[in-house]
C-alpha cells in the first residue's frame, strides 16, 4: 500500500513539474507578447505625436494661405475699382474731344 502511494505521489510530482514547465513557457511567451505590445504602443504614441505636429504645421500653412488669398482678393477688388475709374476717365476725356 505504501509503495502504491509512493508511486502515486511520484506520478503527481512528475505531473506537477510538467505543469510548472508548461506554465513557465507560457510566462516567457506572454512576457514576449507584453514587450512587443509595449513597443507597438510606444511607436504608435510617437507616430501620433508626429502626426499632431504635422497637423499643426499644416493648419498654420492653411491659415497663412487663406490670409494671402483674402489679401489678394482685396488687392484685386481695389485694382478693379481703379481700372473702372480709369476707364470712366478715359471715356469722359474722349467724349470731351
TrEMBL record:
<keyword id="KW-0175">Coiled coil</keyword>
<comment type="similarity">
    <text>Belongs to the LRRFIP family.</text>
</comment>
<dbReference type="GO" id="GO:0006355">
    <property type="term" value="P:regulation of DNA-templated transcription"/>
</dbReference>
<dbReference type="InterPro" id="IPR019139">
    <property type="entry name" value="LRRFIP1/2"/>
</dbReference>
<feature type="coiled-coil region">
    <location>
        <begin position="6"/>
        <end position="89"/>
    </location>
</feature>
<dbReference type="GO" id="GO:0016055">
    <property type="term" value="P:Wnt signaling pathway"/>
</dbReference>
<keyword id="KW-0879">Wnt signaling pathway</keyword>
<dbReference type="Pfam" id="PF09738">
    <property type="entry name" value="LRRFIP"/>
</dbReference>
<protein>
    <recommendedName>
        <fullName>Leucine-rich repeat flightless-interacting protein 2</fullName>
    </recommendedName>
</protein>
